Each structure stands twice: as C-alpha cells, then as structure tokens.
Amino acid sequence: MRKSTLFLISITVLAAGLVLTVVIHPRLDAAFHQNAMENNGMLVRQLDITDLCLFTEVRYTRHLSQADLFSAFQETPLAFEHYPSGSMTRPPAWHNPIAAAKEER
Amino acid sequence: MIERQRYLLDFAISSLTRRRWKNLALAVIYAGMVFLFTSVVLFADAVRKEAAAVLKDTPDMVIQRNMAGRHDLMPLAYQGLIAEVRGVSDVKPRLWGYYYHQAAAANYTVTATPEFGLAENEAAVGSGVMRTWGTLGDNELYMRAYDGTPVVLKIKAVLNAETDLVAADLILITEAAFRRIFGIPAGFATDMVARIRNAKEALTIAEKVFVRLPDTRPVLKTDILKTYAAIFDWRSGYIIVQLFGAMLAFFIFAWDKATGLTGEERAEIGILKALGWDTSDILMLKFWEGIFISLNAFLVGTAAAYVHVFFSRAPLFEHALKGWSVLYPAFRLQPEIDPFRAAAVFALTVVPYSIMTIIPAWKVAVTEPDAAMRNI
Q1: A70/A43 same-domain check
Q2: ipTM for the assembly
Q3: Helix axes B221-229, B20-54, angle to 10 degrees
Q4: Torsions phi, psi of B63, nearest 5?
Q5: Interchain contact, A57 vs B10, CB within 8 Å
Q6: Residue pLDDT, tens place only, B253-281
Q7: Are B97 and B189 contained in the same domain?
Q8: How far is A78 from chain B (nearest CA, A)?
Q9: B112: which of A53, B95, B116, B207 fits an S-S bond (Cβ 3.0–4.6 Å)?
C-alpha cells in the first residue's frame, strides 16, 4: 500500500474516532450528568449554596464569591497570598469593578 | 492534480522516515504540548460550564455584615429591615462556618439546616467527609465545641457522591447543634440570603440595602456567577505562566528543528532542483512534511487530552487544584468540546509549525542546485 494512502487512512480513522467520541461519549454520559445536575441544583436551592467545593484549603478559596475585601491578606496586612489555589483563580468580579466593566466591554 | 499531491505526500513521508528518530521525538514533544494546552482549555471550560449550570439557583443576593473589613455576625433584627426594601422577598438568615479537624488536617464547611429531618445530635455529611475525617467510628463524628467540650454527632445521611462538586466537605447539622459547637449567640446569624422579584432591579435593590444598612455588603447572584465565569481563566493565574514556558520551549525547539536544515536536507533539495523540481514543488513537499507531523500531533494530543479530562478526571491537575488541602472533590465533568476552542487550538498549534517549515525550505530552494548540493 502507498505510504500516502496509509497516512490518509490513519488520519481519517483517528479524526473520525475523535469526532465520534466527542459526539457519542457525552450522550452516553448524559443520564449521569442530568442526575448529578438535578441533585446539585436541589442542594443549592435547599441550602442556599453560593460556591463550588473546589479548593478547601482556606475559607477565602472555599467560598470564592463570599471572600471579604482583604482575602489576599488574611494573616497580616503585609502577608502575600501563600495558598497554592489562591494563585489558580482570579479575584471575585466585584473586587475590581472597573476592570470587570472593561472586560465586559 | 490530486495524484501529483499524493506523490509529493509519498515522497514527504519517505523523507521523514529516513530521519525517523529525530522526527518521532519532535512529534512526541509536539503531541505532548497539544495535550497539555488542550487539557487546560477543556478542563477550565468544563468547570466554568458546570459552575454556571449548578449555581443558576444560587440566592439572588447574599448580605454580609462587615466590621473592620472582616465578616462579622449579623443581628437577626436586620432580617426585617432588609425585607422592607421593595422588591426583596424571602429573606432568610444562614448559619454556616468552618471547622478545622486536626486529625484529618482538613477544613470542613458546617451549615445549619432545617432540611433532612435532623435531630440535635445528628448530621448529614458530604461524601468527602466520609473519605477524610479519619476518626470515624460507629458512624459518628467527634467534634470539639468552641469551649472545648466534646460533641458527638451521629451520621444520619451521606449526601450522594454525585453532589461532590458543591457538597463534598459539607457537614449539615441543626441550628441548636451549630450554636452549641461554635458558640454563636441567639439573635445572630452568619449572613442572610434574599430573593429578588425582578432581576433587573438587583443592583438598585443592593444599593438600597447598603444605604439602609451601611455596615453590610450585598453580594449579588450576578457577582457570584461572574466570579466562577472567570475561574481558571487561561489568560491569568499561574496556569498560563506554566503553559507559556512550555509553549516557548516547544516553539524554540520546533523553530530550531524547522529552520536549521541539515546538510543532508539541503543537498536533497539541491538534487531535487537539479532533477527538474520546481521551487513550488519543494515548498509543497515541505508543506506536506509539516502537515504530516503537526496533524498527527494535533489529533493524538487532542484525543489524549479528552481522555485525560473526561475519562480519567484530570489526574495531572489534581495536585495543583488540591494545593495544601486534604479534601478534594471527586467530580466527573460533563464532556463537551467547544468547536471554536478546538479551532483555536488547531490554529495555534498546526498552522505556525506548518508555516515554520516552509520558510527555510524556500530559502534553500531559491538558490542554485549546485550551491545547495555543495552546502554553500
């Protein structure tokens, strides 16, 4: 078989496999996610949850949207952010309304 | 026309296989780069979408009381004052806080709730609590109250593991148990939540609440959603710093490989020119070489990233997300690839490399065949 034929076949198979996975896999997983979404939604309504449980290191990363204006200086006014997850996220939108408004534009 | 391109492609593949180890190393590094970049994009997108879907029912407004720049307990008398603001409905006090458990070295979120039919000595917990608490015996949580007295709570229910994304670290107890553990006096709450009848008036209502109660800070639902819309933003934070270093290293490597044609490659181009190949043929040949490597790397890297994020729950990012925390939610992200993002990754990875390989070949191809063959 010609090398170009082999290449074209392998690329087509790989691309088709990828596209099929991207199209089919979410459908196979849909029931689980639908269920999870309903359960999560119900808890959010029941408990008035405001934040995702992503970073449980410290209070201002556990509840990103509820952190106070001094969250980066929790320990002393001169302390820099020293929790790793603090550097993974941006400050809450309300923290710098001017920058947030600029970004929206 | 197509047959001509097929012959050029055949020749390009043969040419690449002659230097197979060098090209294989390049393809592996290239695929690794695509994998890393795509993983970040897929993971961040999926978390943002999940956040938007899950938090759509979050309270319209949370009202906190601040004292000296820090959260302070809120008198329950504020409830009536907030409810009097026109447009506000269903004002509820919330009692919640954090409990650091020394045995597990983990922080837990403790919330008082009338739901789940709990008795004063009972608790409902998230699945993360069961995984990490450490001293669980007979399905009981041993806690220390604010005054040092021990508090034993019987676990009545464990929240479904599917809810880990919002509830992995939750310990739900009654109001009486909450006040006993944390010593919060009657007549005070942690903060308050309220519903707003008309979402368009949210900002005005928040201003009215602030005017009426100047020591409070209202946080609107839109602020909460915006906070999570910006989370893991790939343009900021240390994700991009890390990625930038890796991408720079890759592009230097690829540039060096693509621009520094070896003597053998230059001689090959010279011979092809001497045999009657056009400059355009040589450029097309180099284009196909670039396409061969970059397309393979793109497809393999993207497929690996998809498997990494949606099948194996992004284990490479786990340590970064965990930070110093012990408790990490085991959530399954909803698989989805945004076509626009995929096109952007394709444009950022495949196109530059393909162009990069053509320029040096063009430089050699426009020289005289004998000069190219003699490496002048």
Answers
A1: no
A2: 0.78
A3: 170
A4: -115, 120
A5: no
A6: 777 766 666 777 777 788 888 888 888 88
A7: yes
A8: 15
A9: B95
